[in-house]
Specification:
The chain is an alpha/beta fold. It contains 11 helices and 13 strands. The protein has a single domain, classed as Thiolase/Chalcone synthase (Peroxisomal Thiolase, Chain A, domain 1, 3-Layer(aba) Sandwich), CATH 3.40.47.10. Helix content is about 30%, strand content about 20%. It binds oxa(dethia)-CoA (UT7).
């Protein structure tokens, strides 16, 4: 049976930074509090659409794998902030990349979207239905944030990350070894974004209360710690591996304290846990592929390593993927394209949010 091996990786983070000092000007918060409670120092705010971020991450991942878009059988885009609902972001990517032989669909499992997508891909590769798949996590989360609401806006950033999965029959046993997925709709009420569905009738006006992301921070924190630890444990058990055999954990970058607490429960020491939340905050479905890219570029993954991807998100959903890394930790090629440049400041980019969500604030 073939296994799903990651052979290419890429990311696209937009250039405009939202620092903790910038946030101090927008809401009642401060750098010390944010760093101590979340580990985040800055995040990126996109001047383009999530499809544009996805496209560049995709081109970089394809170059890294050394394959052409026409080689792809399937494109999955994990996102909860698609530019539009239909056509899907994946279908738009199919056209932009010229991936003429690929099926394409979006997958929404919020922050667990990449882990869910990797699990779907694993099943399809193992059953022989597909051989080469591009998975992209892409988000423009600033669209749903009220930057006067300090309980939510400090956490999130925009970005995209992609990975190419290929079917391999490798004697070294590389590839995805096991997965664990789950959800709990009742707990899902702790984290809600009620906009952009077909609720109500077409003439309804958009209510800022519904259009802004809301969650119960402490409840989500606890659910996330328990959920990540339990899911990763189940996936490792299925793979017949102990936590002492794990070389690298790439967790969803929600909050440094969530990552620390969850991996402590797992009994995995911090040196084996990759974090880049300091630079990008929580980018939902994009966070794992961005972190995977950064871990590889930083030399944190070696050939043959046991790597665990683990996430928790809205729904609520959770997912973990255990894999043995292949023999290559360097990209085969590089895509040199860039996003269009911008002169906009971070405050220019956030002004529409401020006008919509909090028009009466100072
Ligand atoms: O992908 C999933 C998306 N959601 C999440 O990941 C959220 C998970 N939850 C968390 O990350 C944390 O719960 C938060 C970062 C949201 C909050 O951290 P916390 O340690 O749970 O803080 P808290 O809500 O218990 O608030 C502690 C204090 C409160 O003040 P009082 O009542 O003790 O006077 C808050 O009002 O900190 C205050 N506070 C802030 N202060 C400065 C809350 N947010 C802020 C802020 N800046 N941004």
């Amino acid at each position: 049976m073939p296994r799903a091996v990651i052979t290419g990786w890429g990311r696209c983070v937009p250039p405009v930074r939202l620092t903790n000092a910038n946030l101090e000007r927008l809401c009642d918060t401060d750098d010390d509090w944010i760093v101590e409670r979340t580990g985040i120092r800055e995040r990126r705010i996109s001047h383009v659409e999530s499809t544009d971020l996805a496209e560049l991450a995709a081109r970089r991942a394809l170059a890294s794998a050394g394959i052409e878009a026409t080689d792809l059988d399937l494109i999955i885009v994990a996102t909860c902030t698609p530019e539009i609902l239909c056509p899907t972001t994946a279908a738009m990517l199919e056209e932009r990349l010229g991936a003429d032989n690929a099926a394409a669909f979006d997958l929404n499992a919020a922050c667990s979207g990449f882990a869910y997508s990797a699990s779907v891909v694993t099943g399809m590769i193992q059953s022989g239905f597909v051989e080469r798949v591009l998975v992209v996590g892409a988000e423009k989360l600033r669209y749903i944030l009220d930057y006067r609401d300090r309980s939510t806006c400090i956490l999130f950033g925009d970005g995209a990350g992609g990975a190419v999965f290929e079917a391999r029959d490798t004697p070294d046993g590389a590839g995805v070894l096991s997965v664990d997925l789950g959800s709990d709709g009742e707990l899902g009420r702790t984290m809600v974004w009620g906009h952009m569905g077909s609720k109500g009738d077409p003439s309804r006006t958009v209510d800022p209360e519904e259009a802004r992301l809301q969650f119960e921070g402490q409840a989500v924190f606890k659910i996330a710690v328990q959920g990540i630890a339990a899911s990763a444990t189940r996936a490792l058990e299925r793979a017949g591996l102990g936590t002492d055999e794990v070389d690298v954990v790439i967790p969803h970058q929600a909050n440094a304290r969530i990552i620390d607490a969850a991996t402590r429960r797992l009994g995995i020491d911090p040196e084996r846990v990759f974090q880049n939340i300091e630079h990008f905050g929580n980018t939902a479905a994009a966070s794992i592929p961005i972190a995977l890219h950064d871990a590889l570029e930083a030399g944190c993954i070696a050939p043959g390593d046991i790597v665990v991807l683990t996430a928790f998100g809205g729904g609520v959903t959770w997912g973990s993927v255990v894999m043995r890394w292949g023999d290559r930790v360097e990209s085969l090629g590089t895509h040199h394209g860039e996003l269009p440049s911008t002169e906009a400041t971070v405050f220019d980019l956030l002004q529409p949010n401020l006008d919509f969500f909090a028009p009466d604030a100072d």
